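Researcher: Re-running this chain for the archive, since the previous output was lost when a drive failed. Same request as before.
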Amino acid sequence: MVLGSLFGVRLRVNPYFLLFLAAYAFLGLLRPVLILVAVVLGHELSHVLVARGYGLAVQEVELLPFGGVARLPTLEGADPFVETTVALAGPLHNFFLTGLAILLRRWGFLQGELGNFFLEVNLGMACGNFLPALPLDGGRIYRLYLARALGYRRAGERLVVSGRITAGVLAAGGAAGLALGAASPTLLVLALFLFFSCRKEETAGMYRAMRDLVDKRRRFQEAGVAGVEHLLVREDLAAAQVLSRLLPGRYHLLWVVDRQLQPQGCLSEAQLLEAMAGEGGWRTVGEILGRRS
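Model: Regenerated structure tokens:
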């Protein structure tokens, strides 16, 4: 459900978020939840404002039952420094509010349970968002680092592993806390959310490669010149295996050879991705080259 716009950005509320509010209102916990919503919204808007400062388009901000997400379709493929800065904006915003809350408490403000809750929520969001799992900001930064070094597919595989480990640790901590009567079910719900986010990441490598290709084409049209990364590829390799070697920000030419290193032809990155989009990643590079001949 769309509520309206804020700073020119569409503000959407997930239907489950409304159920979340209703449930906590019924339990008499509406005020803490409203504080949580305000903190989450501030976190996401900090991403938005920094992205807008770099001239990036922002589609919308959606409030979810246990957090929020700012959708920035132009962020992937942007300069690595810009991507990192936008991702860091949210946690740094929460660290700032944590420090401000500590100062206000020393000056006699923000006392009582709600003041404590405000401080704890900001500190929790600041630290929790550095966990190496998507869609958390730490996961985005980790994915950016891995993709630049390893390519899309291998970066996605490593991020899935780290996300599942993170989800497992949170689930164990949440279960232990419940058993000892020292924690709420929040950690278990967050663990489940991160686990399903990992499943989504497993199929996202192809999508990101296509997005990066569109961005590289745009930059080439603007500049008229671009650097090229050359890859020597054996003809019997599956296209999905080659995808794992494509690096963000670089345009690739694939020189296809047989097992005796005899040249068979050349494929562009665009031709490889178009074939994968139409036929899947199980086709070999040689088969794709033969269809292009």
